[in-house]
Amino acid sequence: MSVDSTADSSTDTPTEPIYVDGEEALDEIVAGNDVVLTDFYADWCGPCQMLEPVVESLAEETEAAVAKVDVDANQMLANAYGVRGVPTLVLFADGEQVEEIVGVQGEDQLRSLIERYAE
């Protein structure tokens, strides 16, 4: 899956996760959205699979764009962000990395984190 370039306006936040392939694609998403929650995951990771419905719900119900980065397919990008374990969630606000969370987190905790930066 590729980046959907039809959402030109930053007010049109994507309602489903965007699968990212490469640093340029992630940079484009971060630049085009006020708040971006990036999920560094692996298909073989059980906790990542547990987090998947939470991430999908956050994409649909919050003001954040949600980017998904497969660490196996994007090892250099994962290394650039210091990802040592999956899942790792990196939150960007106004183009800057503001939070990094390792491990499965509750939906309520992630939702309030997003809302703190979306105001």
UniProtKB/TrEMBL annotation:
SUPFAM superfamilies: Thioredoxin-like. Residues 1-119 form the Thioredoxin domain. GO terms for molecular function: protein-disulfide reductase activity. It comes from Halolamina pelagica. GO terms for cellular component: cytoplasm. CDD domains: TRX_family. The keyword Iron-sulfur does not apply. It holds the Pfam family Thioredoxin. InterPro entries: Thioredoxin, Thioredoxin-like_sf, Thioredoxin_CS, Thioredoxin_domain. Signal peptide: none annotated. It comes from the Archaea. This is Thioredoxin. Keywords: Disulfide bond, Electron transport, Redox-active center, Transport. The keyword Nucleus does not apply.
